Amino acid sequence: MAKIHKPRSGSLAFYPRKRAKRETPAFKTFADKADEQAKPLNFYGYKVGMTHVIGTDTHKRSPTYGQKVAQAVTVIETPPLFIFGLRAYEKTPDGLRAIAEVWHDELPKELARRIKTLRKRFEGSAKKKETKEKSAEKSSEKKIEELAKLVSEGKVYEIRLLACTQPKLTTIGKKKPEIVEIFLSGSADKQLEYARSKLGHELSVKEVFSEKEWLDVKGVTKGKGFQGVVKRFGVKMHRPKAKERRVVGSIGPWHPATVMWTVPRPGQAGYHTRTEYNKKLLKIGEADLNPPGGWKNYGVIKNEYILVEGSIPGPAKRCVTFRKSMRPAPIEMHQIEEVEFIAAKQ
User: Fold this and answer.
1) Using CA atoms, how far apart are residues 132 and 265, in angstroms rounded to an integer?
2) CA 258 – CA 251 distance, rounded (Å)
3) For residues 254 and 23, what is the distance between their CA atoms, to the nearest angstrom?
4) Measured between alpha carbons, how far is 280 from 73 in angstroms, rounded to an integer?
5) Distances, alpha carbon 178 to alpha carbons 81, 100, 108, 118, 313, in Å
6) Architecture of the domain whose range is 80-203
7) What is the topology classification, in CATH, of domain 14-78+207-234+265-346?
8) In the chain, which residue ranges form alpha helices assigned H by DSSP?
9) Over the stretch 74-88, which tens digit does the pLDDT of each residue have?
10) CA within 20 to 30 Å of 242's CA: 59, 257, 327, 341, which one?
11) pLDDT of 259-268, one tens digit each?
């Protein structure tokens, strides 16, 4: 009898199927990090929901060339990030290691909800705050000068911006910000120059991305709790006469008495970190995209927003991050150069 051979099915990229370590995702690699100019490479926003847009297809090889086509899009609200600090890294045989950190003198009060050591800074009288601010100014100036010396000596490999989101500017009912790192391109000295100019200021999405760019989006999917093998792995159900229907028929042999990792088992479903590649940024707008009564499960958009083709992981109000695409641009079935109609506005 011929030997039955079948390649394994399913992607190992989805293992281990466990809960994400943190709800705020982060990218570690970037395509254009070697550019000469220092510029931010990633950004964060809050998922609003989905709608569809209509535009004219400009793809000459498409059967709908010159016609109006509909495209499903995801709306992401992108309030500006506040740059409250910068962090310097050195390169070691074991990877990058933080060697210096500089914080801005005036920090937003919401940071104390995330960093417990800052709670004392916002307590007390106004006089104490003034003295603390003066002492902080001196220390921050000295730290920046010391950091510049390390950069000139070649000890600094990379500088990143320390930023916090501003959910207080949205209507999602959240006050605690997310603390994130914004990666920069260019050499260390140019990174320091750019970080010094942005320290204590806001960073908008228009400074990082432009329309018609390809993005990679990363987020944490919607959690579904502890589930069985039928929902978690798509196992076929047994016939109605079977003792148990929603189970695996056999989880392994008696000899060797073991359960292979390839056998579907019940466990956590959802709340996994997932990355979606090559999503086209169709439009960057400013607080003009609200249906009557606001968005379902989200509220009203009050800040800048972006329209991204297709769907992205996660429920409404969840924080997602995006960067410029790492992979080659895919072949487009339709090319929408200008959005003529957005369904959410009606």
Assistant:
1) 56
2) 9
3) 41
4) 9
5) 10, 21, 13, 15, 18
6) 2-Layer Sandwich (3.30)
7) Elongation Factor Tu (Ef-tu); domain 3 (2.40.30)
8) 126-152, 188-198, 229-233
9) 999 999 999 999 999
10) 257
11) 998 899 999 9
